[in-house]
Every structure is written in C-alpha cells, then in structure tokens.
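Changelog-adjacent note: as of this version, every example in the card shows the full chain rather than a window. The one below runs 403 residues end to end.
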Amino acid sequence: MKEPVILAYTGGATTSLCIHYLANHLNRKVLVYMANLGGTEDDTSALIADAYKLGASQVHITDLRSYLVEQVAFKALRADAEFANGFFLARAIGNICMIKGLVNLARENGVSTAAHGSSIVSSEQNRFENLLSSCAPEMEFISPPWHWEWHSREQVVSEVEQLLGRENKRIEKLRRYSLDENDWGTTMSYGPVEDQWVAPPENMYRITQDPTHAPAEADEVEISFLKGLPVKLNGNEVGPLEMMKELTFIAAEHGIGRADLISDGINGIKYREICEYPAARTLFEAHKALELITQPQRLLQHQELMSIRYGETIMNGNWFTTIRRALDSYFNVTQERVSGTIRMRLSAGDCLAVGRKSPHTLVSSSDKDYTKLLNPKHLEGFNKISTVQNRLEAEREENVPLD
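Full-length structure tokens:
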C-alpha cells in the first residue's frame, strides 16, 4: 500500500466517496479526520462506522467547538465580517477549523499528504487548498473529485448508496440536499433549491421556527460587549459556547436568522444557499447597534471597507496569513471603545435594537449638552459656507428645468 493520506471528512456524500476512492482506486492508507464543530449533525458513531465501511484505516476526531467560536467566529463578529449581504460565513469558518485540526493530526502522525472532497464547482476547493498551503506549506494535497468518474451529485450519492447499502439511514438525508453545519450556523444547497423559482421547503430548516408560527409575544435579550466581543447575556457572564447555545435557542424560537442567498464563488460561479444563523444574526445586529453609538462616523465609514476585506479573507481561505493578522490588529484598535449593552427585541423573524447604553457613548443625553459644544453664531457661519457650492451650481444651471 502506498503512503498514507489524511482526509477531511464531514460525513457528506462527496467526502464519503473520497474514502472509498482513495483506499480502493488510489490504494492509499486513509486516515480520516473529523472535527466536532457543533450543530445538530448525524450521530458521530454512525459517521465513524460508515468511514470504516468505506475503507478508512483510522478515524480521528477532535473537539474544536471552542476554537470555532472564540478564535474565529467571534473575531469575524468583532470585524462585522459577512459576505454577500447576510451570509455569515459558517461554512468557511468551519473550513478554517477543519484544516487546523487536520494539519495538527497529520504532523503528529508523520503524514505529508492531505485530501479534501469539496465539489469542483464550490469555493471550498480553492479555500481548502489556500488554507492548507498557508498552514502547512510542506504538505501535498489531493482532490479526488477532480479525477474520479462521478460527475454529478446524483451519481455520487448513488455510488455511496451502493457502498453503504440502501438500508443506511443517512442515504435519504444525503439525497435530499447538501448540508454543512456548526455552532455558528447552517448552510444548505442543492436539492429542491437548485430551481431558483422554488421557495425553500420548510423541512430544510433544522434550527429555526417558521416565523409565521413564532410566539405572538416578543422576547427581549440584553447582550453586553467588551471591546467588541460579547461577554454577557441578560446580565450574566457566559462563555462563548454557552452564549451561542442560549442565544440560538431564544432566537430560533422566533424564526430569526433564515436567509435565502445567492453567493458568488471564488471561481466566478453563482449558487444558491439556504442558511440559518439565529444567534449570529442577533449578535451582528447588536454589535452594529453598539458601534453606532460608540464610533465616530468617519471611522465607521473606513471600517466598512476593512470589514469587507475581513469577510473576503475568511471566504478565500487566507486566515493563516499576514493580512488576517494585520486586520486583527486594526480591529484591536477600532474596537477599544465598543463596550456596553444592547437590548434586542426578537419577534417573528426579526431582531431590533430597542435599547443602548455604553460608558463610551458619543450620543449626548440632552439639548443642553449640544449647546455646550455648538455656538449658534458658529453654526450660522458654517451653514452659509456649506451652501456655497449648491448656490454656485444653481446659478450655473439656472436655465435647466427642475425634475
């Protein structure tokens, strides 16, 4: 048997078939690596059993839930990093954690080749290889979907069904749609939503209540931040994992965090994804509400560009590079005064900031405070000067009819 290869395994159709292909078509010893990233995915014991049945020599799993939330997702939150206007990057964040765990295991076992099974039309192909190259430049990588004979998702699922047997309980789930989930959020694609005209069926959603069936009475939660990071929920200090668990439960009951998005892949391909981010969306809205009262406008305008760059850095697999560390340094500075508490109202699929307080607020509490800062005579002069260009333009265009 040839040298071993370590495979990033999620239990999905493509990564399942990768085990078989590497072991039986390429005659490699396959070390299967799984990362526990949270969510409500299949029973781990079933995934492990399937991996061995497909040809794995060893199966390893590590718990990276804390790493995902504390070291990646909350940094993205602090940076207001999203993609495609509401896509909170759960899949890409999970990829970062997966590669970190895989590389650690590979080095411990002296394995120099890694494999991944992302779809050839997915951004994950490029993202996985970027992450691996910057995290472990000494390692080679293999992507079986580039080489095998199964060219559609239907063919892949059918082959996995033959290998595992029709009685396998996961087959029907694999056939319905592609699922990726972790403690930050859930992402689904393929299946019924390949038809852009079809609304996502209700049974696609795994976490959130249908907003039309949400409780009639709204809930309010208080989220406290320290230097841009959430530290308290309803006045109680909670760790990041507990924060996500409690907030997911509350927000999901009100149908918050659903998104039907069209995403632009790194390779230029557009594709539709259905996402659920109950806790993430609530935290993002609260964080932005706090920034509005603690950050000057000129900083928020500049930071918006840096937030886009942070999201691109995650999406493109450049997490383990200098640019991400540089961006973290930037947000270390800009978030220095982003501390305080936001009261969020959760109701029927929406979350709104209805209360704000911070020791660093820039919002004055009364008209008296403003009159201390603004001299009426100065304002009068400022207003006249600020109208000069409008006046000159109007004189130039005096014969142009108004719309």
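Structural remarks: Residues 90-108 form the longest helix (19 residues).
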